[in-house]
């Protein structure tokens, strides 16, 4: 622990942080109850929003892991707004947390606030998504998924499924523009299909990782093209919306249109088993324990790896173990 939070300082800082909505087991609540453990580390975590079951699972994973690890958590939800994430990080700096972790909604635009964290001597970990900066000293590490590999896994399934096809029309519903999963899932997919001119990406549209927008995007795509062979969707939430649109158009998802999705929510695995989805590329939100382990090391002044990846796989219609899969937990 590099900082001591004396009662007077804590009270002053609690007032300062009053404008900030704190949820979960907050330091302020713990002080009131008189149970603050001075040996605990204080972690400020800025979540980007609540756009999907994946995101809710990620938040729960972080909150549960903090309790298990005895880490005090200052939790902020930015509700899909970068300005709110920046404000949350500033509040963590004002509160002199030991470590800051955040899941950046988009890659660009973090330099100023991270310079402030660096000046305050607070290590910053990016979780789930990455930032784009010319100054690598602004964050100490990243923990989450390999989104390029997820895109490649999606591409490899398409190659396997379409091995005998002469011509394949693909539509893509991507995630939030300029976010890491949007950029890397698109790039990994194209990398695998590159050079095989049977594959045509008719159009790529952004559904912002939202179920409602996934449905709208698919409705528009179906109104423009009557020869779609494959839908590649960057998350399960959008896929669920797209499936509604496909069914409302009188088509059979998984048969008339092959569906490849990313995340691995329980709902998507259930639809894979029902034959309405053909491939689910796993992206696990359950990274809370890894975050706590790294945060503890950082608070103790230890170094951490630049990248820590979760272990993932894909689930497809060719798998024989689908019925024995344990519940997904998100
Ligand atoms: O950053 C991870 C992505 O964000 C997940 O695929 C998606 O469901 C979430 O919105």
Ordered list of secondary-structure elements with their pairings:
Elements: H1 7-16, H2 27-33, E1 42-47, H3 53-69, E2 72-77, H4 82-94, E3 99-102, H5 111-119, E4 124-127, E5 141-144, H6 147-161, E6 168-174, H7 180-193, E7 199-206, H8 211-224, E8 230-233, H9 236-248, E9 258-263, H10 266-273, E10 279-282, H11 288-299, E11 307-309, E12 314-316
Parallel strand pairs: 1-2, 1-3, 3-4, 4-5, 5-11, 6-7, 6-8, 8-9, 9-10
Antiparallel strand pairs: 10-12
The protein binds alpha-L-arabinofuranose.
The site of alpha-L-arabinofuranose has 13 residues, from helix 3 and strand 9.
Shape: elongated
Q: Which stretches of 5+ consecutive residues score pLDDT under 50?
A: 4-9, 11-35
- Under the CATH scheme, which architecture of the largest domain would be assigned? 3-Layer(aba) Sandwich
Quickly name the level 1 CATH class of the largest domain: Alpha Beta
How many angstroms separate the termini?
33 Å
CATH superfamily of the largest domain: Response regulator
SSE ordering: HHEHEHEHEEHEHEHEHEHEHEE
Which ligands does the model contain, each kind named once? alpha-L-arabinofuranose
Described by strand count, sense and barrel closure, the largest sheet is: 6 strands, parallel
Physical arrangement of strands within the biggest beta sheet = 2-1-3-4-5-11
Percentage of residues in helical conformation: 40-55%
Number of strands: 12
| Tally of structural domains | 2
CATH topology name of the largest domain, in short, is: Rossmann fold
Secondary structure category: alpha/beta
